[in-house]
């Protein structure tokens, strides 16, 4: 099933309809999606953050869809409808939740001997155009540099899927803004925060090598203002 994706306004901000997105770590639900409910735009949250979607397992997928009567789930304003959508067999969760910037958040290089992973922690613009994240926010180059500096001066640790004890340490960090690109004569269409991560945990490293963990996700707190 293909959803018709369009833009709408929610709480004064432009959002994308019918496009599920992952909610920040610590949320009561795992995913969210904006839908039309009559003339209004509604945010539907669904999915347990502690539940794994084993859609590649035919038995697990069949059992889930049977328990939730997915064949009769037609109301797009319900959590059941969207949970059933993520348990379909025709597409992956990554494809359903993929956003324009995700291709630039992937791991770009691995050093097997040292267990170091290189990639983009955050991409804020491409070809001079700001990139809007899953929460509908943009980050300026100045704020990216401040956040990167404060993080490196502080903990510098990372957790696998934002849970449990730290499994990684960020050992290299470079906020690649237009200003720093010019200073170092770097040619790239992106403004981004480049990092290198040392993986300490065997299970996490195995998941990285298998391609199960293929991009970085940053979490933090910020103050919103209208742009």
Task: Throw out a few tags for this protein.
227 residues; 2 domains; six-stranded antiparallel beta sheet; 6 helices; 11 strands; globular; disordered N terminus
What does the overall shape look like? globular
Chain-averaged pLDDT = 84
Oligomeric state of shown chains:
single chain
Q: What is the helical fraction, as a range of percent? A: 10-25%
Intertermini distance: 35 Å
Strand content: 25-35%
* Rg: 19 Å
Provide the structure class: alpha+beta
For the biggest sheet, the summary is: 6 strands, antiparallel
* Elements, N to C (H/E): EEEEEHHHEEEHEEHEH
Poorly predicted runs are 1-5, 99-104
How many strand elements?
Answer: 11
Could you please describe the fold and organization of this structure?
- The protein has about 230 residues and is α+β, with helices and mostly antiparallel strands.
- It folds into two domains: about 5-95, no CATH class; about 100-210, no CATH class.
- Helices cover about 20% and strands about 30% of the residues.
- It has helices at about 60-65, 80-85, 95, 140-155, 180-185, 200-210; strands spanning about 5-10, 15, 20, 30-35, 40-45, 105-110, 115-125, 130, 155-160, 170-175, 190-200.
- Mean pLDDT is about 85; it is low at about 1-5 and about 100-105.
Would you spell out the secondary-structure blueprint of this structure?
Layout: E1 7-10, E2 13-16, E3 21-22, E4 31-37, E5 40-46, H1 58-67, H2 79-86, H3 93-97, E6 107-111, E7 116-126, E8 129-130, H4 141-153, E9 157-158, E10 168-176, H5 178-183, E11 190-199, H6 202-209
Antiparallel strand pairs: 1-2, 3-4, 4-5, 6-7, 7-8, 7-11, 9-10, 10-11
